[in-house]
Write a structure and sequence with these properties.
By secondary structure, the protein is of the alpha+beta class. The chain folds into three domains: 5-95, DnaJ domain (Helix Hairpins), CATH 1.10.287.110; 123-160 and 212-264, Urease metallochaperone UreE, N-terminal domain (HSP40/DNAj peptide-binding domain, Sandwich); 168-207, no CATH class. It contains seven helices and nine strands; from the N terminus they run αααααααβββββββββ. Helix 2 packs antiparallel against helix 3 (40-53). The chain starts with a helix and ends with a strand. 27% of the residues are buried. Residues 4-66 form the J domain. Belongs to the DnaJ family. Pfam families: DnaJ, DnaJ_CXXCXGXG. It comes from Candidatus Yanofskybacteria bacterium GW2011_GWE2_40_11.
Length: 265
């Protein structure tokens, strides 16, 4: 069956080389076998289409004769499963012996967002806490005190995770990149898997000496108490949201909220 390479990449037959490359990059990120959304068969189809349409001569032959021109011989002798152009695409024509470093540089953005894990950790607030309590009808109209556990900022290190007298240094595990890479060999070539560095949690820096009180988390658990006035006309459920009443954020980020669901017995 004839293959529609333009449809595979989701482009028109008049697409420019830049549009072809842009479409390929987007789909390659989406269907890369190492990703959660990966699809090895789809990834292979996308790569096959790109190898043809990115080459002027192959594209011209395809436009004139269809995909039958590439069956068997495969892209000028490369074979449908060959990924040489895949490596060339990412290395800008400077193909490396394994293609490993160039693939890492491109796909690190897809897997880690180019420091995405670090940005998310630094921007995110603490976890919201959900507390469900029950009260009797005799409690309606009165104030009651409820106790719960929550994470608060570590007083010993002031939430920095660094022991007193110490400082932050470049992570020795990832060299400050905030991510680590592993090579995986497959029948289609060598692919890299990029993940957040476990030693520095994606920050690129780690404490020279970790705070012992919070074990480098910047937070410690404690018990809190909150007083809530129960509406006199409460029939069943009553939800109270206390802004920043939840867990403190990591690295001195804002606290989450406390959500109290009050039910009548």
């Amino acid at each position: 069956m004839a293959k529609d390479y333009y449809q595979t990449l989701g482009i028109s037959k008049s697409a420019t080389p830049d549009e072809i490359k842009k479409a390929y990059r987007k789909l390659a990120h989406q269907y890369h076998p190492d990703k959660g959304t990966g699809d090895e068969a789809k990834f292979k189809e996308i790569n096959e289409a790109y190898q043809v349409l990115s080459d002027d001569k192959k594209r011209s032959n395809y436009d004139n004769f269809g995909s039958a021109d590439f069956n068997g011989g495969g892209f000028g002798g490369a074979g449908a499963g060959d990924y040489s152009n895949f490596y060339d695409f990412f290395s800008g024509g400077r193909r490396q012996p394994s293609g490993f470093e160039d693939i890492f540089d491109i796909f690190s953005d897809a897997f880690s967002g180019g420091g995405y894990a670090q940005q998310q950790e630094e921007r995110s607030k603490g976890e919201d806490l959900h507390l469900e309590v029950r009260v009797g009808k005799k409690d309606l109209g009165d104030s009651k005190i409820f106790e719960y556990e929550s994470m608060i900022v570590c007083e010993e290190c002031d939430g920095t995770s660094v022991a007193k007298g110490s400082k932050m240094i470049t992570c020795k595990t990832c060299g400050g990149r905030g991510q680590v890479q592993q090579a995986t060999r497959t029948p289609f070539g060598t692919f890299s898997r990029v993940s957040v560095c476990g030693a520095c949690k994606g920050r690129g820096q780690a404490p020279e000496k970790e705070c012992g009180d919070c074990k480098a988390t910047g937070r410690v658990k404690t018990k809190k108490r909150i007083e809530i006035r129960i509406p006199v006309d409460l029939d069943n459920d009553y939800v109270v949201v206390v802004p920043k009443g939840g867990n403190a954020g990591k690295l001195k980020r804002p606290a989450g909220d406390l959500v109290v669901n009050i039910r009548v017995k």
